[in-house]
Amino acid sequence: MIRFEGVEKSFGAARALDGLDLVVPEGAFAVLLGGSGAGKSTALRLVNRLIEPDAGRVLLRGRDVAAEAAPALRRRIGYVIQGIGLFPHWSVARNIGAVPRLLGWDDRRIAARVEELLALLRLDPAEYRDRMPAELSGGQAQRVGVARALAADPDILLMDEPFGALDAVTRQALQAELRHLHAATGKTILMVSHDVEEALALATRIAVMAEGRLLQEGSPRELLDSPADPRVRDLMDGGALGMRRLSLVPAASLARPDGAAPEGLPRIPAGATARDALEAMLAARADAALLEDATGVPAGVVALADLLRA
Amino acid sequence: MRAGAVVPLALFAAALLLLPAAGPVFGALFPEVAEPLYRREAFAALALNHAGLVLFSLLPAAAIGIGLGIAATRPGAAETRAVADALVGFAQAVPPVAVIAIAVPAVGFGAAPALLALVCYATLPVLRATTGALATVAPEVLDAARGAGMTPRQVLFQVELPLAAPPILAGLRVAAVLAVATAAVGAVAGASCLGTPIIAGLVNGNPAWVVQGALLAGLMAFAVDGLLGLLAPGVSASSP
Ligand SMILES: Nc1ncnc2c1ncn2[C@@H]1O[C@H](COP(=O)(O)OP(=O)(O)O)[C@@H](O)[C@H]1O
Ligand SMILES: [Mg+2]
């Protein structure tokens, strides 16, 4: 659990944080959402003490981060940034092994961990282990950046707009992997984003910030359905409120048994969202879509009218 | 690349070997001079002293320049940086002869004032190269290094210095070539070096000696540039 208590931080005349109170529950995928200059990065960097607060404190599992030496604290917190910041003079393997090396792991253990992480992030170890950062595409470099952050198996992962510089396709692929990673490991993830779609695609909790303060914190659905502030409403709505709501609802939760399903309906995976279902119906000019499990067996039908219940 | 190092070195060695036997050549070139070849000291001994001056000024200059450059680029060292900048500007504005003239009353004649002037001059390119090179390390790389839990010392030695090494070595190369040229001025203060025949030639109206000293000093500068080029490829002090 990460808890911000009355945190204030100024840089000269610029007030970056103006009394931030926020709790990130254990195991959450929390997204700090807000426009540029809202204080998101500042909040994130207080957690691993790259920035020290002027007032207030940050607690990790009830313990003030200031109670621990900063290097030791940072070695048990994963950190990923938009610029990636791979060490350009080190191979991919050496980059990923950076924190384990600082922790004094032996070479065999580091090498094994590097293989494991490369595989986890879908980079063939034999091909990528010895490459230099300059020989990677943007997406590959960011995968290595995520692997490096995960190397020492930290409980907490801090990510500052990690996919901001990537093209849309690569970004979506990495978002999907991050979602799997969170589901598989249960790590607490605190991620900064200015992209509502990204927040809705990933977050279990969203904290909307503006002018150094928290506007509202809640589940994505709570923020969509009952914004507590006009600025939250404008941000979450963005002219696509209905579609965003659909994107949060699994199509399966609106489905009926496929008993009387007509022939020729568009088929979507059982794990698809209601938004995917609508897209499939519109594309096929059909008024329903058929859910099918991984083996192609029908698992229910969603009709156009069912989407109104989302 | 290799040839760039070997050819100047071979030229210098050849000049050092052939010059003592080149009396008739200089006699023909400078018929008005009574003693066409400088014989007060062996050229090899002068060259060795010259190299000694360069080496023993370059080592402290490298230590001071790199050390000051590191100190000036630490976070929160804006004042150190300002002082270093002022130092660079001031020291470059004063000619080497003036440094020697000021130093002689303080440390006496001989090698000491020459070394002092050389250290002053050789420090500047190293300092400038170090601050410049450290400033080019990408901020997100530093952020990642600190975020990974490296101590300031680890950030410096594992990330900043390895990334900044090539330009710093290039700065050392510039400093070394500058030192070879400037060391000749040390003869004014009585330091024995390749400047000695030059000064003696000027004082005694013997241009042959001037040419001999200048030839060897110039070739030594090329040789040093070539040798250090092996360490810092890509940047040549002679063609910046
Ligand atoms: N190191 C810094 N020096 C000066 N001002 C800063 C610094 N970091 C952040 N700020 C200022 O603090 C405010 C919040 O910045 P930041 O936390 O980076 O916002 P966000 O990540 O939400 O875009 C901005 O006005 C920014 O200019
Ligand atoms: Mg930011």
Q: Quick recap of the structure?
A:
The complex is a heterodimer of chains A (about 300) and B (about 240). Chain A is α/β, with parallel strands linked by helices and about 300 residues long.
Task: Tell me what the structure shows.
The complex is a heterodimer of chains A (310) and B (240). In chain A, the strands form 3 sheets. Chain A has a 6-stranded mixed beta sheet, sandwiched between helices. A 4-stranded antiparallel beta sheet of chain A has the order 2-1-4-5, covered by helices on one side. In chain A, strands 11-12-13 form a 3-stranded mixed beta sheet. Chain A is of the alpha/beta class and 310 residues long. The two termini of chain A are 31 Å apart. Chain A has 2 domains: 240 residues, 3-Layer(aba) Sandwich (Rossmann fold); 61 residues, CBS-domain, CATH 3.10.580.10. The relative contact order of chain A is 0.12. Chain B has 10 helices and no strands. Chain B has one domain: MetI-like (MetI-like fold, Orthogonal Bundle), CATH 1.10.3720.10. By secondary structure, chain B is mainly α. The interface between A and B is medium-sized, with 24 and 18 residues. Adenosine-5'-diphosphate binds next to strand 2 and helix 1 of chain A.
